[in-house]
Design brief:
- Strands 6-5-4-7-8-9 form a 6-stranded mixed sheet, with helices on both faces. Strands 1-3-2 form a 3-stranded antiparallel sheet.
- The chain folds into 3 domains: 172 residues, no CATH class; 186 residues, von Willebrand factor, type A domain (Rossmann fold, 3-Layer(aba) Sandwich); 87 residues, no CATH class.
- The radius of gyration is 34 Å and the shape is elongated.
- About 8% of the residues have low confidence.
- Helices cover 46% and strands 17% of the residues.
- The chain is built from 18 helices and 9 strands.
- With 498 residues, the protein is of the alpha/beta class.
- Helix 4 packs parallel to helix 7.
């Protein structure tokens, strides 16, 4: 009498599948490199290594030569460094890596078959010559096994090129991320994860300007120093006490409980469904495993998540940690002051066309970089003649990047209407979020300052607003000097090849 079917033993034997990412399981089940347990352990090791920002050590599943082309492609792209702490990106990459292993396995098998046929043909020709017989001679099984070992050894030693499909799929994205990192430094990782954003940035007309302006800023350190001086410090008061009591916001963690109906708690049977869950499999499905041929059918149904299983559900108490902010008294020094936002006003008149235009755009780029790195807001007013004032809030979101690249693609032409743009600035300074802003006025200064303009600026200065001016060119004192203090005069034309 045969032993009774032990469903618990079957469940334990496949428990390792619980560690496999669900979206990768169908590919791993049908892959023929190594055992299923080795595949699951290997892909988990790849996932951990990529999330740490590097490739897994050699010897990790799959063995050579199956991982060679994929590793070569990843090494050429230096892609692993962009995967650090990016689970969504790693999931996408692992899916394509498994496809790469399948391609390599197919090439490897094809090489063995092709070489075995060649060796078998050579061996048969040798035997026919020795026998001096025109009849076709059959190669014996022992010789065939030796020839198969030789063909396998040669296929393993074959030098294989980097996986072309991995290179084709990721080269453009990696190039985009590298260029974005070159421009924005550590902010490149913030931008580089958007599949559409990274490619869209490269195709924008202003992208080449962005790369060129970033290099210009590197050659003009004085521009960076000007931007770093912007933004008034948020001071609590003018006292010097180090033992004052201040109210500071504190984030407290509180636990909330929620009842969630979930199939992961098998408390009650609700019917029958098709799935790939072995633990809930009907006995009629388990009986297929005992048959030498029907077992393959079971594996196929398991891969397709088409096994007949019990549908179960139950109630799970979900505990969530929620941050709530409260104010507490704290004894000690004053909070560290923070800088306020930046409002950049750029003259885009015809006199700014050419080299002054490049310097002005470089200053805007550096202002955005500095503001974002310090979590400050940045607003741009680009103006020329009457009715030609453009206001853009700049940040490194997809929409903010679109605005920045649009501005960088502008060509400076037109007249001068400083009074209108300053009125717009005054209106923005009345908003609570911009009251601590500093103004950066970029122009060649080739315009007079009417009394009304000077009076508007004076009122803002009396409230604490500072107006920094950057005069591009050495034209002496003009309109910019009448409203800005200090005024930084840019004369280093050799640095920009002008």
């Amino acid at each position: 009498m045969s032993a009774a079917f032990d469903s618990r033993a079957l469940e334990h034997s496949y428990a390792f599948l619980d560690d496999c990412p669900d979206h990768l399981l169908p590919k791993l089940v049908t892959l023929s490199i190594g055992t299923l347990k080795e595949r699951v352990a290997g892909i988990n090791e790849w996932q951990r290594a990529l999330l740490d920002g590097h490739l897994p050590s050699t010897g990790t599943w799959p063995d050579a030569p199956f991982d060679g082309p994929v590793r070569s492609a990843l090494d050429q792209l230096n892609l692993a460094r962009f995967c650090k702490d990016q689970p969504e990106l790693v999931d996408k990459l692992l899916t394509e890596l498994l496809d790469g292993f399948v391609r390599t396995n197919a090439d490897y098998t094809s090489d063995i078959e092709h070489r075995l046929k060649e060796l078998e043909s050579l061996e048969r020709a040798r035997l026919e010559r020795e026998a001096e017989n025109t009849a076709r001679i059959r190669v014996d099984e022992e010789t065939l096994r030796k020839l198969l070992k030789q063909a396998t050894r040669e296929a393993q030693q074959k030098q294989r090129d980097a996986d072309g499909q991995v290179l084709a799929s990721w080269t453009e994205r990696v190039r985009a991320w590298n260029e974005i990192s070159e421009v924005f430094g550590d902010l490149g990782q913030f931008l580089g994860r958007g599949w559409d954003l990274s490619i869209g940035v490269l195709k924008h007309a202003g992208w080449l300007d962005l790369l060129r302006l970033r290099k210009l800023v590197d050659t003009l350190p004085q521009l960076r120093e000007i931007v770093r001086a912007l933004g008034r410090l948020h001071a609590v008061n003018d006292g010097h006490s180090v033992a004052e009591t201040v109210l500071v916001p504190v984030q407290r963690l509180e636990e909330e409980r929620h009842d969630v109906i979930t199939p992961l708690v098998p408390a009650e049977t609700r019917g029958i469904e098709r799935s790939g869950e072995i633990a809930r499999m009907l006995p009629v499905e388990a009986s297929l495993l005992g048959h030498p041929k029907l077992r393959l059918l079971w594996h196929a149904r398991r891969a397709e998540r088409a096994l007949l299983t019990y549908r179960v559900e139950g109630i799970e108490v979900e505990r969530r940690q929620v941050e709530r902010e409260s104010l507490v008294e704290q004894q000690g020094k004053k909070p560290r002051p923070e800088r306020g936002p930046i409002i950049a006003v750029v003259d885009t008149s015809g006199s700014m066309h050419g080299a002054p235009e490049h310097v002005a755009k470089a200053i805007v780029l550096e202002a955005l970089r500095s503001a974002h790195a310090e979590r400050r807001r940045c607003f741009l007013y680009a103006y020329s003649g009457p009715g030609q004032t453009l206001g853009l809030e700049l940040d490194l979101s997809p929409s903010g990047m679109e605005k920045l690249l649009t501005f960088l693609g502008f060509s400076f032409h037109g007249g001068n209407d400083e009074l209108t743009v300053v009125r717009n600035v005054m209106h923005r300074l009345k908003e609570s979020a911009w009251q601590k802003a500093d103004i950066l006025f970029v122009s060649d200064g080739e315009w007079p300052a009417p009394p009304e303009l000077v009076e508007l600026v004076k009122e803002a200065k009396d409230k604490g607003t500072r107006f920094h001016g950057v005069q591009i060119g050495n034209q002496g004192e003009a309109g910019l000097h009448a409203i800005c203090d200090p005024v930084h005069v840019f004369r280093d034309w050799m640095s920009i090849g002008a």
